[in-house]
Amino acid sequence: MKRLIFVLITVLIVSSAALADEFPNKPITLIIPSRAGGGFDKSSRVVAAGWEKTLGQPIKFKYLPGASGQIGFNEIMNNPSDGYTIIMTTIAMQAMNINVGISKFSWDQIGFIGNLIVDPNVILVHKDSPWETINDFIKAGKKAQEPLTISTSHPKAVSTLAAKIFIELTGINGKVVAFDGGSAARNALAGKHVDACVGPYFSSSSKKEFIKALASFTDEKVWPGIWDVPTLSKATGKQFPNLVEPFAFMIKRDTITKSPEAYKKLVETFEQAIASKETQEMAKKTGMTAFIEYWSPEKCDAYVESFQSVWNKYKHLME
């Protein structure tokens, strides 16, 4: 009898230890490197609706705005490589931060869980502007005595790189006016303080009462549900780069080798969460359905390489 009790206790101890080691056995902390209520927060809550269910644990949001997202990356790098601390930001934004020296962390230190949405960058003008097409705008820019002003979200942002590429490839007389944040850049256009703006398609739709898109920095035509516009490459006959904003979930890259089971669970449950009923319903409510585009970690890494090729070609514009 005593032997039987001993065996049962041993089994319970071993089983409890196994359960304790199973990932995740506590909430996941998701770092949002911006203020609550912004685009990163809203999109993260869309996938969190389904991800909490597939993970079996709650996701706790931690807001760390500032320094172009680098306060958030400092936080994740100071936490263990166990999969319990993750971060969401756009790949292109972090790539710019690395390229221009804002970030002290390289891609060798940052890994991917997957990508949630893709928001294409577009050329925007005011609804009252005289330009109906992108070629109207280019024609006016080539004749302009004074530079046409184009607002962007930050001096070292992807939108600034895109605007400068646009000016160079089209030959217009243009000037970039960089603000501190995408909302400020779009508000400047809505208030008619600038002639145009470069910004992400979905994020800019909040101002659709005042502004409209003319063309996109994409390889393929974007969803026409907000504005029906051509790609810049097709409209102009010139080869413009694919400059989109992929909203990706990231970790410390050494989590892949130090905590492989945890990493595998994060990747698998993230993909499942995007396809879940909960996430799809939340996406529909927020108008985000058309922009949901799951990317595997491998596809995220491939986008980094593609973006780096664009940067190497046009980095002289940012000097």
Describe this structure as you would to a colleague.
It is a single chain. With 319 residues, the protein is α/β, with parallel strands linked by helices. The chain has 2 domains: 193 residues, Bordetella uptake gene, domain 1 (D-Maltodextrin-Binding Protein, domain 2), CATH 3.40.190; 117 residues, 3-Layer(aba) Sandwich (D-Maltodextrin-Binding Protein, domain 2), CATH 3.40.190.10. 45% of the residues lie in helices and 21% in strands. It has 13 helices and 10 strands. Helix 6 links the parallel strand 5 and strand 6. Helix 2 packs across helix 11.
Return the string of H and E elements: HEHEHEHEHEHEHEHEHEHHHEH
Basic shape: globular
- Measured as a percent range, the helix fraction is 40-55%
Mean pLDDT value:
93
CATH homologous superfamily of the largest domain? Bordetella uptake gene, domain 1
What is the multimeric organization of the chains shown? single chain
The largest β sheet comes out as:
10 strands, mixed
From the alpha-carbon coordinates, what is the Rg to the nearest angstrom?
A: 23 Å
Task: Count up the helices.
Answer: 13
> Could you give the distance between the termini?
80 Å
Number of domains: 2
Q: Give the strand tally.
A: 10
